[in-house]
Design a protein that fits this description.
By secondary structure, the chain is mainly beta. Helices cover 11% and strands 42% of the residues. It has a five-stranded mixed β-sheet with strand order 85-86-87-1-88. Helix 16 (1362-1378) packs across helix 18. It starts with a strand and ends with a helix. About 12% of the residues have low confidence.
């Protein structure tokens, strides 16, 4: 392995930072949704009136290098008049709280940065201009990089507004000679958005001054009230050295409320203390408040407070009107302001600064180290402690003086890493250790809501407008809170009364984001429903990853299966199948009863198209063939079938005609002629090639490139043929077309039109023949021509309303060329000189065509349509529609009208969709396939409900599910059946919301989706353990998973202390001076042997092996040992443990061997018997079997044992590593071991002299986390990951002079992953198309390393050929400059080895970064050809290299 590729397969899910702010909309845009009051509500008691939610800001989350922005969508409790709209199930359902029945998070943008986010804040717009401006996001990155991002509506994504970098030679003096800083830059913002500050390099404070609202780049026009003006921006920055202000050790800082100028409070330690002195010297911290004058750059000290405890670590700014700051320590909470202070002790370790006065204490004991906190109201903060409890802290105040602090327990929740309040009713708990939660809170009964209610009632009855004005007057939350608290005193309720009212908080979890991190360990096992006979790609669907994730009560076993393996209900053989459809049939009898909702109606018929005939099956109960006694066209193949007229009729389209059927009886028969009737001879060959159905229209594309439209009449239930005017006047051939039915609660496309009638009109309901109303929505026709243009028409009039030049080139944003003619090119600068590059490139350009289109929107209020296009080279273009309102004067100047459009200019301008735009969505995980030209089989099937999910299914040689969650497409491959020719949904008695797929071998399978969580990068199933999992291994013979689990147990203190005494030396404790009361949590370890019982069901614990008290299980492995007495191999379970008893007791450990037998008469029962156990010196931290022997890492040495059947006898030993073995790997007779501080050692075992020899080692110091061998053909490399998130690859070359005669391992590659890799797994590369052509090559013995990280990401490192590597490396260098990177980060500097200030010789740059290479596929076609030409290769060549790589690593 000289060259490798680094590829992420599952991105980080553990959320480390979160914040909220008005990013995509301003606070003035979002009017509070107050349900209109109906007549029966008015006479009810008005105290129950709900407090309006108010404008809800966005949620921003950061997980390692993944930045996501969400909108919180709220579902109001439906009043009777709105009942029909709320028929859909509420998403974040549950109890109705404060008039809200549910809320869900919807993704707005998802970006992967070239750098890990160190801290994240939102720069608010300040209370100026009525909340019209939006907020910005400030991100900081390692060492001292700061990026400010704002949301740009015109591209529906984030744009960098300013970048500030304080690194490099110019700023080296800021480091003051230090190389290593324990934490990255920390950013905080002023609550009114006047400035922000970043603490970098420990003691340098960078002050970022915000631009005034008036100096914005765009002066807000008077008429454009509907659109927010620009977001808040940073104007300038300067540096304050805190060292000059006599601060030495800064722990935290924050901006506080209630001052005219920004005031920053800094928590710092003026004198350090240490563990041995803490009893005498314990109050070493202080806070200092500085007033920041950004124009004069002066920072006078206003007030300070001394004598804070040494364990204070966090500041929390108290909102107005109270003001001041909370200082949070492990055992105390202090409140300080300029005028008052008070404090609260949390446990008996809290000591007052001077021993005299008594300290007020909370009613229960708790510890607040590592807690996160946010404000729910202006005087109540919620804390999430390290044990996952939610605590409420109330400030009891009078005026602006805080009298005392009160703490109370609330609910238990997830262990959080960050917490933020979203608006006035939600908060979000972001977690690295469990799933993150969106929680709605409601402060209960009493005065505040009552008075609020009176005010709201008046606003409601007047209509929505006044409520909007009222909000404009008080844009910020602080002001709203201020009003409320003024009312309290105004109505004569004292603070104590308010206190009682405030205490009653109600919480409801509304949504959760799945997290699979931190992955401490994983193992690779078989799925229960695996198919032992599978080969090739399908064989990968037999495996799953079982991971140890989470911590404490969030601990779980996570089962990851990248490819979906459906549960097969039944299977039939059906060779030669071409297509398959299921249709409904509503006869009028059942329709009148209206008993069954549309979703639950069963399918009536299944139509199967074979090579030269069509089969029809009845599907109500069982599948029975009824081909003989129905009027369907069964003499030839069917092209498509579907329902019309609200499911009362079925239409079946075949090559030369169509039939309308009512159930089994035909009501109409059509024969189709080509539109060009004069050329009769030629038109004989024109038959139907593809069909799109959108009730009541059917669009047909003929083989000669013309289109025909069948228009249905809902009253007579008959269909007439129209030749759309498109195909007559143009010589362009239509290559792909689809109908798009814009239905849902309100038509979406209408909003994008500038036509007043269209955009305001409410979808008129059409009365059906039976008197029931059908909500038809609007129907549009999307066409793609052979020159690559895309056009959208309205149906049935066929007016052109949207046109895109060169859709086929796949630009990142597309918009209507008619209006924005020239504007389309600003995204592509290469267009202008792509003409003269030469004929070769033109050929490549023209050979790519669109072969299939599909546009779909699912039924939900805020859903935006997706547009999918498949190109002839197998690329899939996926676009997501969005609205960007263009002001009139701007578009007139841009509207360059091309000559061909001037035919229908008069009416064209009226109703074009000038505000419609599409943004391209990256599809990373997709390995594409070549579609042979000329064969146009429809590969995209839209499904509305398969197991409650919705999306697209893509059939073909690499089938793929596109599932829609939170307005994002999740892609999951389905590889277990090989290529799939046809797919359709099926819902009947035996198959509840399932599907039918037909494989290329001719098997018809009726399946259901397994019950997994699909809203993740890979489908996942979580099995809660209620403890922390540490290590898992797979017992292949018995299909069991032994897991090390630890559970915290409260033990009496005296028991804990006595265990810390070395029994041999005798008792050294004098019991008199130690207070023995109280308890202490201790981790108790056990090994659970778990078995997956049934598919996707709960796992069962078959046996538990408990450890002794204060004994930690460190490793569990399944080993194969050669029994020297019985002369046979035995498979045993080996456990290595250590006694953890403090530093006064010599380390000891045990080695345990167990045999696991399944008792034959009872499947459920396993007998686990201890075969051997022995206590050794030193912790047994790793073990492995080496050619039938057992290799143990026992403290600072490794020992090889042979197994006699009853004894382990030492055969050989070696005194490496110096400290402690972290991981141990074996290939043949080679041993690789990683030490916790001293890097890696490479040894070999010789049987004849029975000796362990040290071959070589790495002389550098490295804190290893995981090691593994990387095998590429006949070369062996050693891979190691470290605590600085790097990966290094070494090799052993005794003949090379630099290796000091072979003592030293040489570096082959190094790379910064940006995540802590905890485990490598070696997997054989899958064969690609290129490999199959050369039989007998040494490519069979090539392996990739799959790895898991603490951030919840999974990726792989795969070996590359040198030629491929050179090509991709030169492409990578090009992409660094030619792609616009989010937040302005440089991918090259991110991937450099991070040595953390230690001396390090840079190694070769032999790993390419696929995270950067994926941007190549997202470039426009012209740019791709241009870049490929510049590096001297072709686009085809690059694409096939990237595709081969994704095929070869398509594991699981």
């Amino acid at each position: 392995m000289s060259f490798a590729a680094f590829k992420m397969m599952h991105w980080a899910t553990g959320i480390e930072h979160c914040a909220s702010g008005f990013i995509t909309h301003s606070s003035a845009d979002s009017t509070p949704k107050i349900p209109p009051i109906t007549a029966d509500d008015i006479d009810s008691d008005w105290t129950t009136s709900t407090k309006p939610i108010g404008p809800v800001p966005n949620l921003i989350t950061a997980a390692a290098n993944v930045l996501e922005v969400y909108i919180v969508r709220i579902q109001e409790e439906a009043s009777p008049s709105l009942a029909h709209k709320a028929a859909a199930e509420p998403k974040g359902g549950g109890a109705v709280l404060a008039g809200v029945s549910g809320a869900s998070l919807e993704l707005v943008c998802h970006d992967r940065l070239h750098g890990n986010v160190e801290s994240l804040e939102v720069l608010p717009n300040g209370a100026t201009d009525g909340g019209r401006r939006r907020d910005s996001i400030i991100l900081t990155f390692r060492d001292a990089k700061i990026s400010v991002l704002e949301f740009d509506e015109s591209i529906c994504g984030l744009r960098t507004s300013s970048m500030h970098c304080f690194e490099g030679s110019d700023w080296v003096h800021l480091r003051r000679g230090r190389e290593f800083f324990p934490r990255g830059p920390l950013v905080k913002v002023d609550p009114l958005g006047r400035c922000a500050a970043v603490l970098a390099y420990g003691l340098q404070m960078i002050v970022l001054k915000a631009a005034e609202a008036s100096t914005g780049l765009t002066a807000p026009a008077e008429d454009s009230t509907f659109r927010a003006a620009a977001a808040s921006r940073i104007e300038s920055s300067y540096i304050v050295g805190l060292r000059d202000l006599d601060m030495k050790h800064v722990k935290d800082f924050i901006f506080i409320h209630g001052y005219i100028e920004p005031v920053v409070v800094i928590l710092h330690e003026h004198e350090l203390t240490w563990a041995g002195r803490v009893a005498w010297k314990h109050h070493t911290c202080m806070v200092s408040a500085l007033s920041v004058n950004t124009t004069l750059k002066q920072h006078p000290l206003i007030w300070s407070a001394m004598n804070l405890p040494h364990d204070a670590y966090k500041l929390l700014a108290v909102p107005s009107p109270i003001g001041g700051v909370l200082v949070i320590g492990a055992n105390t909470i202090h409140y300080h302001s300029q005028s008052a202070s008070c404090h609260l002790g949390l446990n008996n370790f809290a000591v007052p600064a001077d021993g005299s006065q008594e300290m007020p204490r909370s009613g229960f004991t708790t510890e607040l180290d590592a807690a996160t906190a946010t404000w729910l109201t202006n005087d109540v903060a919620v804390f999430s402690s390290k044990s996952g409890e939610l605590l409420l802290l109330t400030l009891v105040y009078d005026g602006r003086v805080v009298q005392r602090l009160e703490l109370m327990k609330s609910r238990a929740s997830v262990l959080t890493s960050d917490i933020t309040t979203i608006g006035s009713s939600f908060f979000f708990l972001g977690s690295r250790l469990g799933d993150s939660l969106l929680v709605q809170y409601y402060s209960g009964i009493g005065a505040p809501t009552l008075n609020h209610g009176v005010k709201e009632e008046v606003g409601d009855i007047e209509s929505d407008a006044p409520s909007m004005k009222r909000l404009r007057r008080s844009p910020s939350d602080a002001l709203q809170d201020l009003i409320t608290s003024e009312e309290l005193t105004f109505y004569g309720t004292g603070p104590n009364n308010a206190q009682i009212a405030q205490k009653n908080f109600t919480f409801a979890v509304r949504d959760s984001l799945l997290n699979i991190g931190p992955l401490k360990d994983f193992s690779y096992g078989m799925r229960i429903n695996g198919d032992p006979s599978a080969t090739g790609v399908a064989k990968q669907s037999n495996y799953e990853l079982v991971c140890c994730s989470g911590h404490g009560k969030n601990g779980a076993l996570t089962v990851l299966q990248k490819s979906i393996r459906p549960d097969t209900i039944t299977q039939e053989s059906l060779p030669g199948c071409k297509g398959i459809w299921t249709v409904y049939h509503k006869n009028l009898r059942s329709d009148s009863s209206k008993g069954v909702a549309d979703e639950d109606e069963y399918h009536a018929y299944l139509i199967i198209s074979l090579e030269n005939r069509t089969m029809v099956l009845q599907t109500a109960n069982n599948l029975e063939e009824v081909t003989e006694n129905v009027d369907y066209y069964v003499q030839g193949t069917t092209v498509a079938a579907g329902n019309l007229f609200g499911r009362r009729r079925v239409i079946q389209v075949f090559a030369r005609g169509a039939r309308i059927l009512d159930g089994a009886f035909m009501t109409q028969d059509l024969s189709l002629k080509s539109s060009n009737t004069e050329m009769n001879v030629a038109s004989d060959g024109a038959t139907v090639s593809s069909v799109s159905i959108a009730d009541p229209y059917v669009l047909l594309r003929m083989t000669d490139g013309s289109i025909q439209l069948l228009v249905g009449d809902p009253y007579t239930c008959s269909v007439s043929v129209i030749n759309p005017p498109v195909s007559e006047n143009s010589d362009k051939l239509v290559l792909a077309c689809t109908l798009y039915h814009d239905k849902g609660p309100e038509p979406w496309i209408r909003k994008t039109s500038t036509d007043a009638w269209l955009s305001t009109g409410i979808g008129e309901a059409i009365d059906g023949a039976d008197g029931s109303t059908h909500d038809h929505g609007d129907v549009y026709c999307v066409l793609c021509y052979d020159n690559g243009d895309l056009e959208i028409f309205d149906v049935p009039n066929f007016n052109s309303i949207f046109l895109v030049d060169k859709f086929v080139s796949g630009r990142s944003h597309i918009l209507d060329t008619f209006f924005h003619g020239a504007a389309n090119n600003h995204i592509n600068l290469t267009n202008k000189y792509s003409e003269d590059i030469g004929q070769v490139r033109k050929e490549a350009n023209h050979s790519i065509k669109v072969v299939e289109l599909s546009m779909q929107r699912w039924d939900s209020e805020h859903n935006r349509p997706f547009l999918l296009g498949i190109l002839s080279d197998g690329t899939i273009l996926c676009y997501h529609a969005y609205i960007y309102e263009v002001s009139d004067n701007a578009s007139k100047t841009e509207g360059v009208v091309s000559s061909q459009n001037s035919v229908n200019l008069s009416n064209a301008n009226a109703s074009r969709l000038r505000n419609l735009r599409f943004v391209r969505v990256p599809l990373d995980t997709y390995a594409k396939e070549e579609t042979p030209s000329g064969v146009c089989s429809q590969r995209i099937t839209v499904f509305k409900n398969v197991g409650g999910l919705q999306g697209f299914f893509l059939s073909g040689s690499r089938p793929m599910w596109f599932m829609m969650f939170r307005e994002r497409l999740r892609m999951h491959p389905q590889g277990c059946d090989g290529p799939i020719v046809a797919f359709t949904v099926l819902h009947n008695v035996n198959c509840n919301h399932g599907f039918i797929c037909i494989t290329s071998e001719g098997a018809l399978k009726i399946c259901q989706l397994p019950a997994l969580s699909y809203d993740n990068y890979w489908p996942v199933q979580k099995i809660g353990l209620k403890g922390t999992p540490h290590q898992v291994t797979y017992f292949a013979e018995k299909n069991l998973y032994p897991v090390i689990v630890s559970v915290p147990v409260l033990k009496p203190l005296n028991q804990v202390l006595s265990s810390l005494v070395d029994q041999e030396v005798g008792n050294q404790f004098e019991h008199d001076n130690i207070n023995m009361e109280g308890t202490y949590p201790m981790e108790e370890f056990e090994v659970r042997i778990m078995e997956p019982e049934k598919i996707n069901g709960p796992w069962q614990t078959r046996a538990t092996i408990p450890m002794q008290s204060s004994e930690h299980a460190l490793t569990v492995r399944v080993v194969t040992l050669f029994n020297t007495t019985a002369q046979r191999n035995e498979t045993l379970l080996a456990i290595g443990t250590a006694y953890v008893q403090g530093e006064d007791v010599a380390a000891r450990g045990r080695i345990l061997l167990y045999s696991v037998e399944r008792i034959s008469d009872n499947i459920q029962y396993f007998q686990v018997t201890e075969v051997y156990s022995k206590e050794l010196k030193g912790a047994i931290s790793a073990l492995a079997s080496l050619q039938g022997h057992l290799l143990l890492a026992s403290g600072p040495k490794i020992i090889l044992h042979k197994w006699t059947g009853s004894e382990l006898n030492g055969v050989a030993f070696h005194d490496v590593p110096p400290l402690y073995v972290v991981s141990l790997n074996i290939v043949k007779n080679f041993i690789l071991l990683g030490d916790i501080h001293k890097s890696i050692y490479f040894l070999s075992w010789k049987e004849q002299g029975s000796q362990l020899n040290l071959l070589a080692k790495d002389f550098g110091s490295l804190d290893c986390l995981a090691t593994e061998f990387l095998i590429d053909g006949s070369t062996l490399s050693l891979t190691v990951s470290d605590d600085q998130k790097n990966v290094q690859i070494f090799y052993y070359a005794p003949k090379v002079s630099e290796s000091w005669k072979g003592q030293k391992l040489l570096s082959r590659a190094e790379f910064h992953v940006g995540a802590h890799i905890t485990k490598f797994l070696r997997l054989q590369l899958l064969p690609t198309s290129a490999d199959r052509t050369m039989p007998g090559s040494d490519k069979t013995n090539r392996f990739a390393l799959l790895f898991g990280t603490l951030e919840g990401s999974i990726g792989c490192i795969a070996p590359l050929e040198e030629l491929t590597f050179r090509r991709l490396q030169s492409l990578q260098k090009k992409l660094v400059d030619s792609v616009c990177h989010v937040a302005g980060l440089n991918p090259r500097s991110f991937r450099h080895f991070h040595s953390n200030g230690k001396a390090h010789r840079p190694g070769p740059d032999s790993i390419v970064d696929c995270e950067l290479l994926v941007h190549f596929e997202m470039l426009a076609l012209e740019d791709q050809l241009e870049i490929a030409n510049q590096i001297g290769t072709t686009r085809m060549q690059i694409m096939s290299n990237l595709n081969d790589l994704s095929v070869a690593t398509n594991f699981l």
